Amino acid sequence: MKGQNARPTANFLNKIFGPLRKCSGMKTKLLVAIICSAVFFSAFRTVGDGELPIGAGIPKANVKMKDVSGKEVTLSDAKKENGLLVMFTCNTCPYVIRNQERTKQICEYAATKGIGVILLNSNEEQRNSDDSFDEMKSYAREQGYHWFYAVDSKNELADAFGASRTPECYLFDKSGKLVYHGAIDDNPADETRVKRKHLQQAIDEALSGKEITVKTTRSVGCGIKRI
């Protein structure tokens, strides 16, 4: 098998790099750098490349997930009259921990505005350790959660959303359309330097029927630990 694979690989590389032998030294180095960069970024594409587009409906809305209450819940169950806030999170990520007070504040804010709130833990790789169901229950109790915190089994929801980070937020309006995706605010690393509360602003604009000023921002945090 090893010998069979070697020839096609060699032929492929010859097709790419063979013409470079005719180039000058500097041109060769430049072309090799460009090709290697393209290969590198292609190989390390994140799930975000297939992320849910603005305007999309709620994916996997009727998939049942186990909530820390012990009951099964769906995104449809969590949605309220003015929309739904879905946040991918966990127990362990330093950015989640650093943003915990902001997470609780925005979840409280959304709930008071008639927006349903559900937090999803997609860290399947750590399901038998720090992100186990029992640890999730303890974490939710310690944080005083009074909204859903559910197990995203086998990353099904994270894959459907194209989520790649914790924390990562998705806001759906009352019609169930995605209107905002990204971070809670513009400085996940330092709460004292926050200049714009992206998610709260999106909630206010959605409730007032205005066009969302900033629809997407970059989520900063730990990668979801998929299986």
Model description:
The protein has about 230 residues and is of the alpha/beta class. The chain contains 8 helices and 9 strands. Strands 5-4-3-7-8 form a 5-stranded mixed sheet. Strands 1-2 form a two-stranded antiparallel sheet. Strands 6-9 form a two-stranded antiparallel sheet. Strand 1 and strand 2 form a beta hairpin.
Q: Report low-confidence residues grouped into runs of 5 or more.
A: 1-21, 26-48
Task: Kindly report the spatial arrangement of strands forming the biggest sheet.
Answer: 5-4-3-7-8
Radius of gyration: 22 Å
Could you tell me the number of beta strands? 9
Helix tally equals: 8
Shape: globular
Q: How far apart are the termini? A: 28 Å
Q: What is the share of helical residues?
A: 25-40%
Largest sheet: 5 strands, mixed
Multimeric state? single chain
- Give the SSE order as H and E letters: HHEEHEHHEHEHEEEHE
Arithmetic mean pLDDT: 84
Structural class: alpha/beta
Beta-strand residue fraction: 5-15%
